[in-house]
Amino acid sequence: MSTAYIITASEPVNQQIYRFLRQDIVTCVISPGALLSEKEVSARFSVSRQPVREAFIKLAEADLVQILPQRGTFVRKISARRVADGRFIREAVETAVIRRAATEATPEALARLEHNLRLQKLSAERNDSQAFLLLDDEFHRLIAQSINCELAWETVENIKATMDRVRFLTLSKVSPPESLINQHEEILQALLAKDADAAERALRHHLQEMIFSITPIAEQNGAWFEQE
């Protein structure tokens, strides 16, 4: 676990540790099946074990770790079934959001999406996968924000942690950033045209790519996936 993070006074310590560990698990800095030690994580962040324990519980709620009494806390292997379930829920929420955004998004909101897309292109040029994933999430959050319904994105964010690990693994070969940027461009153009049907089609195509990519990723990283 070599990624450097700094605990600040800006938010509760347990939430920061949760966010940092979630990022490391999603980007496979901490690999599926790994044992998480309360003692080691406490030392890493120079905090007591209580906020670490609370962060572990939150990671378990996100289905990223499994807490086994008397044995320890282990990073869950990736479940293709949970990825499919998460994508189904995400698609249901986000298609409702995108249709409203097609008619309600203001010019200012659309300008923020265009700026985000420019930043995505820069991160792709720099081969910065972590920055790209954050901007990808921000693109979708901005769409929810454009209809004053950030709760929709918060709902999606709470169920997509397992999806995020597959997203990260696909970036190098199966779904490179350039392909995802083109899909985001199609979504944005439909929103600019105020075409709800085209926006929904573009979004569904974008989200359904996850299902097509999971099989080759599972074949390439078999030890990281659950046998289902």
UniProtKB/TrEMBL annotation:
Kindly indicate whether the keyword Transcription regulation belongs to this entry. yes
Keyword tags: DNA-binding, Transcription, Transcription regulation
The family database entries (SMART domains) matched by this protein are listed as: FCD, HTH_GNTR
The chain positions of domain HTH gntR-type read 11-78
At the top level, the lineage of the source is Bacteria
Name under which the protein is recorded: GntR family transcriptional regulator
